[in-house]
Amino acid sequence: MAYVIKGDEEKVLKLKKALYGLKQAPRAWNSRIDNYFQKNGFTKCNNPSMFEDFKKAMTQEFEMTDIGLMSYYLGIEVKQMERGIFISQGSFAREMLKKFKMNNCKHVSTPVECGIKLSKHEEGERVDPKIFKSLVGSLRYLTCTRPDILYGVRLVSRYMESPTTTHFKAAKRILRYVKGTIDFGLLYSSSNEFKLVGYSDSDWGGDVDDRKSTTGFVFYLGSSAFTWSSKKQPIVTLSTCEAEYFAATSSVCHAIWLRKLLKELHMPQEDATEIFVDNKSAIALAKNPVFHDRSKHIDTRYHFIRECIVKKEVQLKFVKTHDQVADIFTKLLKNEIFSKLRALLGVTGN
Questions:
Q1: Are 333 and 110 in contact (CB under 8 A)?
Q2: Are the beta carbons of 156 and 350 closer than 8 angstroms?
Q3: 165-180 vs 129-142: helix crossing angle, rounded to 10
Q4: CA-based Rg of the chain, rounded to a whole angstrom?
Q5: Whole-number mean pLDDT of the chain?
Q6: What is the per-residue DSSP string for 293-347?
């Protein structure tokens, strides 16, 4: 249906301001932030979403006013402390709890109930998808500084089209967890160590509807986690080894991209980037191309990992499961293990 004004049938409306949810909105926002940074002396890197102030990069004179300006546009709170820089979204979390009438709820120790199995075919009354999408969207934004809730948010995101009271209850549990950790955020401690290190993990067939697995990874510069992911794999894997191998391949691809980016930011990684995996069979499969019977059904694009190992760009190393930080992005965890991995991520109270 077209909107037509009599007498002006040949004219079109010019959009002066892109509204949230429209296809034009991301482009309009990118254009605005791009113009702002370039007017203030920043230079765009080869990565189109990255900017650098070369003058300050050379003198290392970064001011908190610059960080504060960036955080203003992102809606993130930044606090300079003796231990380092603490970033959080406490105000946003409080507004979110108030919006969904959960500001007086009882808090819980983990964002997802251990042992829960959600499905698209859950019994129960249907929930208004608009309310559910609004809740999930708010939780997604909170993951900017709260990677500890990422797995739970990705889990409930699968059911936005036709949510039930069971799905809504699972989403509200994440709010109850946020209630008890409302002042938590990420602490970036000062360090002279800029070695890139990653952790890669996967569950196996965790989605009860299509039996696809979840890939999770996190990368550190020194002791600080700065990029993470929790995403369902695009194919159904036939074993734990295969699921871990695919997860490792995704991690390697991200590591190669990060190495190129860090080189552009004057922090080149001379040694191979270590990626820790808790499955010895997946490591062996990545290093040994002779395993034809076990791997001939695997798409060739996933064997990219072998080329990177040969070029000594990455190195897969074994880590025990209880020290696998990426576990927090792939599966349900008991409180004790969850708290340990959350601390290793750098998520802590103010």
A1: yes
A2: no
A3: 30
A4: 22
A5: 85
A6: HHHTTS-GGGGHHHHHHHTTSEEEEE--GGG-GGGGGTS---HHHHHHHHHHHTE
Q: Three-state DSSP class for 184?
A: strand
Does domain 192-319 correspond to CATH entry 3.60.15.10?
no
- CA–CA distance, 37 with 56 (Å, rounded to integer): 14
Residue 84 gets the label, from left (phi > 0), alpha (psi -120 to 50) or beta, of left
DSSP string computed for 25-53:
HHHHHHHHHHHHHHHTT-EE-SSTT-EE-
| 87, HSE (Cβ side, Cα atoms, 13 Å) | 22
Residue ranges per structural domain of the chain: 90-184, 192-319
Would you say the C-alpha torsion 294, 296, 302, 307 has a positive or negative sign?
positive
- Cα atoms in the 13 Å half-sphere on the side-chain side of 62: 13
Indicate the pairing of strand 273-277 with strand 196-202: parallel
* Residues in contact with 230: Cβ distance below 8 Å, sequence separation at least 6, in sequence order: 150, 151, 154, 214, 215, 216, 329, 330
| Helix ranges, the chain (H) | 24-39, 54-59, 64-74, 90-99, 129-142, 150-157, 165-180, 240-264, 280-287, 292-295, 304-310, 335-345
Residues in the chain: 350
Tokens of 94: 């409080």
pLDDT tens figures, 244-259? 999 999 999 999 999 9
Rounded to 5 degrees, what are φ and ψ at 72? -60, -45
Beta bridge partners of 84: 81, 189
pLDDT digits (tens, 9 = 90+) for 95-138: 999 999 999 999 999 999 988 889 998 878 999 999 999 999 99
Query: Which pLDDT band, with edges at 50, 70 and 90, does 5 fall under?
Result: confident
Whole-Å CA distances, 184 to 200, 217, 303, 341: 24, 21, 39, 14
